Amino acid sequence: MKRIIKRMTLGVISIVLIIVGVFIFSPRPITWIVKQSFVGGNEVAAADFDEAKQKTTMEADINYGPKFPNSTLDIIHYKGDKQNIPTIFWIHGGAFVGGDKADVLKYATYIASNGFNVVNINYGLAPNVSYPVPLQQIDQAYRFIKKNAKQYGLDISNIYVAGDSAGAQLAAQFTSIQMNEGFSDSAKIGRSIPPETIRGVILLCGPYDLQEVATMSPSAFKRFLFKRIGWSYFGKYNWEGKQATLEASLLKNVPKAFVPTFITDGNTASFEAQGKRFAKLLEKRTTVTQVFYDTSKGTYGHEYQFQMNLDAAQNTFKELLKFLEETKSSAATKQS
Question: What is the pLDDT of residues 96-132, one digit of tens each?
Fold first, then answer.
C-alpha cells in the first residue's frame, strides 16, 4: 500500500511539474487563457444602433490572401450618397494573441452609417504566427483592396488607418512605415500606400512601447503576463531587447513624419500614460485630436469606447466623427 501511495504521489508531483514547466517554458498556456478572455469582445451597442445599421450593407469574410491564417476581411458600406466616401481600414485588438474582426463590428458599422466605408481586417494570431506577419497581412489586405477597389466600390485615394488596443499599435507602426522611408525594416514590407492618400489615423487604447509595458508594471502578475504575450508575438523568450521590439515601440522609434491623428484611452487599467506621451510627440509632427478623461469624471477601462452605453464613449464617438469630417474636408480642399 505504501508503495502504491508513493507511486501515486510521484505521479501527481510529475504532473504538477509538467504543468508548471509548460507554463514557464512555453507561452502557449498563458496566451490561450488570454485569447479566451477576448472571445465575444466587449461591445455594447448604441441605443440607435439598429437604425444606424439600416444605413449600411456588409460583404463578409472576403479572402484577401492565401499565405497566412485568418486572412479575411469584411467590407461595411455606407448606403447613402456614394460620392467622396472615405475608406477606413480597421485593425482589431486582442493583445496580438486574441480578438477578431467581429469584436468591432458594431462600432465599425456605426462609423460606416455616418458616411464611411470600413474594411474590417482579420489577421493571424500569436503564437501561431509571430512578428512581423500581422503587419504583412495588413499590407496584403490593402493591396487586395487596391487591386479590387472598383469591384467593391471603394475609394483608396482617401483612406484612414484605424485600430484598437494591439490593433492601434499595428496601425501606428504600419502608418509610420508608409510615411517614412526605411522605418521598421524588420517588418519586411514596402511602402505600398501613397502617403498623400492617408487622411488620418485612429488610435484607440493602444500600447506604444511594448518593452515598457512588459517590464515597468508594478504588478508581478502583469509582468509575467506581458512577458509571455511578447514571447508569443516576437517568437523569443528574451524579446525585450530585440531590434524588432525597438522598431515596434513608437515611443522609442518615433516616426519623423505622420498624419493627422485621433487618439484616446481609458483612465484605468489601460495604456493612458503611453497614449498621452505619444500624442505629445505627434503634436510636433502633425495635428492631433486627444480625448482623455480625468478620473474625477469617472473611471473608464481599456476599450471603454466600445461600450456605447457610457457617456464617455458617446462623447468620444462624437469627437471621432468630428475628426473624420474635418480631415476629410481638409483633404477635399487640398485636392480642389
Answer: 999 999 999 999 999 999 999 999 999 999 999 999 9
Residues 6+ apart with CB under 8 A from 66: none
Q: What are 289's strand-pairing partners?
A: 262
Q: How far apart are the first and last CA of the chain?
A: 91
Domains of the chain: 2-335 (3.40.50.1820)
Strands 159-164 and 117-121: unpaired
**247 and 206 in contact (C-beta within 8 Å)?**
no
pTM of the model: 0.92
Task: Kindly report whether the peptide bond that precedes residue 29 is cis, defined as omega within 30 degrees of 0.
Answer: no
